[in-house]
């Protein structure tokens, strides 16, 4: 069986398990962690219940069950009242989950946004590009890449020579 077919079967089983537990559709956003052990879907746990349009949890809550159960792979499913699309903030969050998974040694199979009108995969959107098994790249992405600028909070970049001239003047 090809890797793509196994991925699709695991995703279908996970979505079915989330729906069976009452996760689809809801009036608020929910984040589910589906642990995969030895190629089979293991536990499915509700990690967080958010507001109407956002989740505010930390990756440690998502990986807590996976680490406890010694799962090799975890799949995250975000359900919500709207359509199944990933916002810019959710794409950054999915990449952060993937980077934390690389550091912990737990591979993130996918981060799915499931809604009333369909689903969207973070892996197929390219959110996990460049993080394949590289702990240094993942750590650098965690430290540098996930600061989202809000409004005019960006400071202009000052070069060392300009800084030295400003100090001596």
Question: What is the topological layout?
Answer:
Elements: H1 3-20, E1 30-37, E2 40-49, H2 59-68, E3 73-79, H3 88-104, E4 107-115, E5 118-121, H4 122-125, H5 135-144, H6 160-168
Parallel strand pairs: 3-4
Antiparallel strand pairs: 1-2, 1-3, 4-5
Helix pairs in contact: 2-3, 3-5
What is the CA-based Rg, rounded?
19 Å
How is the main sheet built? 5 strands, mixed
User: How much strand content do the residues show?
Assistant: 15-25%
What do we call the CATH homologous superfamily? Answer: Cytidine Deaminase, domain 2
Gross morphology: globular
Question: In the CATH hierarchy, what is the architecture at level 2?
Answer: 3-Layer(aba) Sandwich
Report the average pLDDT across residues. Answer: 75
Low-confidence stretches: 146-156
Give the ordered list of helices and strands.
HEEHEHEEHHH
Q: How do the strands of the widest beta sheet line up side by side? A: 2-1-3-4-5
Q: What name does the CATH topology carry?
A: Cytidine Deaminase, domain 2
Structural class: alpha+beta
For the record, the count of structural domains works out to: 1
Short synopsis of the structure:
With 169 residues, the protein is an alpha+beta fold. The protein has six helices and five strands; from the N terminus they run H-E-E-H-E-H-E-E-H-H-H. The chain has a five-stranded mixed β-sheet with strand order 2-1-3-4-5, sandwiched between helices.
Keywords:
five-stranded mixed β-sheet; 169 residues; alpha+beta; Cytidine Deaminase, domain 2; globular; 6 helices
